[in-house]
Amino acid sequence: MNLKDIAKLAGVSSVTVSNVINGNHNKVSKETIDKVNKIIKEHNYVPNATARSLASKKSRIIGVVLPYVGMDEDFSRSPYYTRILALLENYIRQQGYYMMIRCTGGCGEVIPLFNTWNVDGMIILGADKREVKEIIGSIRVPVVFIDTYAESKIANIGIDDYKGGYLAARYLLSKGHKHIGYAGPGIDSPGVIGNRIKGINDALAEKDLHLDKDLIFEAPTNYEDGIELGKKIAFASKKITAVVSMSDVLAFGIMEGLHLSGLVVPDDISVIGFDGLPECRYTTPHLTSVSQNLSRKALLAGEYLFKMIKDKKKIAVNEIVDVEISEGESVRTIRPN
Amino acid sequence: MNLKDIAKLAGVSSVTVSNVINGNHNKVSKETIDKVNKIIKEHNYVPNATARSLASKKSRIIGVVLPYVGMDEDFSRSPYYTRILALLENYIRQQGYYMMIRCTGGCGEVIPLFNTWNVDGMIILGADKREVKEIIGSIRVPVVFIDTYAESKIANIGIDDYKGGYLAARYLLSKGHKHIGYAGPGIDSPGVIGNRIKGINDALAEKDLHLDKDLIFEAPTNYEDGIELGKKIAFASKKITAVVSMSDVLAFGIMEGLHLSGLVVPDDISVIGFDGLPECRYTTPHLTSVSQNLSRKALLAGEYLFKMIKDKKKIAVNEIVDVEISEGESVRTIRPN
DNA sequence: CTGAAAGCGCTTACAG
DNA sequence: CTGAAAGCGCTTACAG
């Protein structure tokens, strides 16, 4: 069954059928519309999307790019990406578009991939500054980045990482903690981490404190590395009373590592995470975390993308979604003695 | 840049370029191949996938269908689906195919969707018996189901649900539990749940026990409902000492509900989950669970699908992946007094 | 409001 | 080994 068949059955031309399907109702009479629709329904006809895409140069496909670590990795390692992905799927589906997803180490390799499919737009998660130029230079469709810091004119949806770091440290300080540790990627990483570190430092500085070099624990933000980090922290300087972790998943690992080392959270040491995932409630004690509004991030990403697609012009914008402390029970109050 | 441009630059016909791109090396001389490839590389040419798909009637797209609950739901609610999805993405990507995903309430609505894109194959998660007929009746490409019970001749990858139920109950019995509860979807659901229930009952029967009606707690398998269920269980018959939950996420909720009610797991009550997700290690105590090998399920699904695609014929098969108890600390040993 | 013609960028037989 | 021709199933101006 194709357009021509339907046209023949309806006694009209393919053009007319095409106009009916595409809702160009100003070009077709009411009766013709009804007649054609009836035949379409009777025969369960669905237009061929590849032919449509080829002819119209639109695909209704949105390409979504997720970062991955190695060939054997999969994105489920990161509940954060998973959640965003699910939210985007929902949004894209409700727009009547299709979602094509791809994990990749370098966004460069993804460009030919999506060019090949004439995607109407792309959403790229966690790209770094260097990749951005390569991407926007060679892609003509609208792109929205999530969590990317770049000088270039791009549409980006991020969070207030500085404030996140600041709030985490302030929260711990307000609970009487003075010797605060850091756990996460190398503290000299630019962008996301750099800004959080700055926030932490500024909060500490207000109390004439600073991040002690001995209390900086660097590791990738996943569960397994978290366990190792937890063990290290357990045997580190005795004065440490709290740790700021750069992700919830890392924090889960840290809590486990501390537990395995015989320490109790929060009695012996407090932990605060970052992201505020639903999984924070799976742990005992529940993880206190700097919570970001993922629904809002996904919503904004979708809205900007479709606005660009509909208006056919790019938007340069940097939307910063607010963060807040979501309290669990993993931070204890130290009484000033 | 299109085929024709490349052909012109290389001084050959489009057919020849096409043959080079598609690796029909027996049809082109070595020198021509090199010449054409050089030009392709120089100009960063990528073939237009929609045109290819239209002409060849192959798309290299695999459609993946996930079940969802309501319009506002997203699949991240279920770490189980998320994990499978991530594993499938990895497999599909490594085959050089594209993955298009879709959440849906009824698989019926997904048929026109994927027909429209000429997908080369589909993987459908958690379809129920009634949907199967509708799907296989109206789709011509290879389909692999995951976790589906059906009489029809289909390719399905499942787990040994009966054994899972049996092992869970046996495990609890071996620890001295006699009053065992059930938590999960309605126990008269056919398929997955029905078989697990049967396994539980058979294990209990071996000890002249049975599932007590008072100890059956029905709810959808998600965290929030789990909390409510945990509270109910806490105030249920005093004799209950252990609960078998039909999913890990539900079990997490139950543990939380019990905790909120002042009960301690496993001291006051033991809990065993189902799935064996990595998240089992996030809880304190770690959740003991009937663990299924998700990597293997995804691998088998991928292998069967691509075998069907390559051999161009359907396979009827029901692969049952083994399950085993993955021990955490959420089940206590009751001393016979 | 309706349709004939051209074209989107490929691949598929087929002929040489 | 190479290429001319036809066709995949649509949409896009354009003419009426």
Automatic annotation (TrEMBL), chains A, B:
Residues 1-56 form the HTH lacI-type domain. Transmembrane segments: none annotated. It comes from the Bacteria. The keyword DNA-binding applies. This is LacI family transcriptional regulator. The keyword Signal does not apply. Gene3D superfamilies: 3.40.50.2300, lambda repressor-like DNA-binding domains (1.10.260.40). It comes from Butyrivibrio fibrisolvens DSM 3071. Keywords: DNA-binding, Transcription, Transcription regulation. GO terms for molecular function: DNA-binding transcription factor activity; transcription cis-regulatory region binding.
